[in-house]
Amino acid sequence: MHTQWIEQLRALKLTGMAAALSLQWEQPTTYADLSFEERIGMLIERETLERENRRLTRLLQRAKLRVPASIEEIDYRHPRGLERPKMAALASCDWIARHQNLLVTGPTGCGKTWIACALGNQACRRGISVRYFRLPRLLEQLRIGHGDGSYPRLMAQLAKCEILILDDWGIQKITAPQRADLMEV
After folding, report:
1. 85 CB-side CA count, 13 A
2. pTM here?
3. Which of 22, 96, 147, 154 is most solvent-facing, going by the fewest CB within 10 Å?
4. Where are the domains positioned within the chain?
5. What is 71-184's CATH topology?
6. How confident is the model at residue 124 (pLDDT cuts 50, 70, 90)?
7. 23-35, pLDDT tens digit by residue?
């Protein structure tokens, strides 16, 4: 009977709940003093947590961030001019809700890519879809898309993400067709 219930939960794609219920059956003394409501609550919490974790994993995989940076790892002792209150405000992701753009500038090697990826990671943790591209690679994909017919599909993918991180601006000169593609993006 227990196995049947576990299989039914899995068939309903309630894998977190199935795992938590299995655990309750495997360790009955641990859960014996809990009420029905408490045990159901634990099952629901586990399912919710597993779904949130899967969503975060999916968002991070789709983001294709160049480095696994996070806001919590910022070293403010390094002389980059980063201000803790300003970074905290950016980490809140309010600028995204206000549809504002963010431009990270600085000399080579100062950590622009790292900061952009940390902010992208933070956005993913808040359930916001992100996509990272090196600008030369994106422009190349768009050029190829014009030739092989994949341009509309790529543009649709770009339109779906809430944050688009474009890195490595200024490495190469942008042509007129590339400028037009960027305006479309």
Report:
1. 0
2. 0.81
3. 147
4. 2-63, 71-184
5. Rossmann fold (3.40.50)
6. very high
7. 888 888 888 888 9
